[in-house]
Amino acid sequence: MTRESLLSMDPNILLSIVNMKLRDSFSSLQSLCDDVEISENEISEKLKITGRTYNIKENQFK
Fold first, then answer.
1. Could you tell me what percent of the chain has a pLDDT over 70?
2. Distance of alpha carbon 21 from its chain centroid, rounded?
3. Which of 23, 12, 20 is nearest to 47 (CA)?
4. Domain carrying residue 33
5. CA angle, corner 17, sides to 14 and 9, nearest 5?
6. Is the confidence at residue 20, as pLDDT, over 90?
7. How much is the pTM?
8. DSSP H/E element including 36
9. 58 vs 38: CA distance, rounded Å
10. Do the beta carbons of residue 26 and residue 35 sit within 8 Å?
């Protein structure tokens, strides 16, 4: 997963992948973003299209 591939994905597919990564591999959105070298804001803005926002307590976009 690269920054460019994430930003070019369909937002609904991105949502699924990001939530899976958060569930299985990363304890926070920040750690996922650090790994992929993307800002939290870039992912959040892309997923805002789907009507979802990051829920820090549940570590997923809802």
1. 100
2. 8
3. 12
4. 3-61
5. 25
6. yes
7. 0.92
8. helix 29-36
9. 21
10. yes
